[in-house]
Amino acid sequence: MACRLPLAGAPRALQPSGGARAFHASTAALKPRRQRNRNNPFALNLMKHFQYDDIPTYGHMKLQRQRQMLEYYRLLQHELPQLEQLHEPFQPAPASNLLQFQFTHYQGERHPGARRVVLHVDLRDLFAADVLKTAEAKHKFLLLAGARWSPAQADVVEALNAAQQKGAEALAKAYAELPLGSLKIGCSQYPHESQNMKWCSDVLDRMLAEAQAEPAFTEIPLDVRPYIKSNARGGRMPMPSAADFPKEWL
């Protein structure tokens, strides 16, 4: 004998006669739309007509903007003058402070590049501070710097190599007169910028200590290749050839 079951949640008109209606069917869903919206305060047909007693959405946005500007004006008028009590006169750094650290901050955003720290040192100021006693130590310091050294011109490297061949006195005079440029040391391998700052400072200290140790490497000239531009990149100096390097290098 076949038995037909009623459809769960179906209206009474769709259910077979004599079948029991499912107990979980919602009575509100079975009511007509007009009857359901009778008690709904958000129904569109129950909303009153606009009586021109309010401003549109754009007007509210404009008022909100004016409120924000008034808040800033109050800060300018009442709170910013109190900051004058915290004013301190600017004092430039003394000449003994040779190290300049460069930090990169992305305001309002966390970025992996914010941990990078770059140390800049002017070599004229560093050598004038008498940290390296001899011209040989300064020469070895530039050898250790390598590509981290940025001379003002490529001719400076050639002039230092020429002064090195003349002797220690000519080399010391060249270090005192020529524009030596700056030294740059960067680090971003640690998670905090204070750690990268300490690493750059430690590298500079090790370079200064190694430059004063033996051997002095006075017979090795400075490499001019990193500072010569090729014609293909828009430079004016030609590419170096075999005649530009010492014979003992070949």
UniProtKB/TrEMBL annotation:
Domain Small ribosomal subunit protein mS35 mitochondrial conserved intervals: 89-249
Entry's Gene Ontology molecular function annotations: structural constituent of ribosome
Keywords associated with the record: Ribonucleoprotein, Ribosomal protein
Coiled-coil regions listed: none
Superkingdom assignment: Eukaryota
Pfam families documented for this protein: MRP-S28 (PF10213)
Keyword set includes Ribonucleoprotein: yes
UniProt-listed InterPro entries: Ribosomal_mS35_mit, Ribosomal_mS35_mt
Any one of the GO CC terms: mitochondrial small ribosomal subunit
GO terms, biological process: mitochondrial translation
Listed name of the protein: 37S ribosomal protein S24, mitochondrial
Organism: Malassezia obtusa
Taxonomic lineage of the native organism: Eukaryota, Fungi, Dikarya, Basidiomycota, Ustilaginomycotina
The gene coding this protein: RSM24
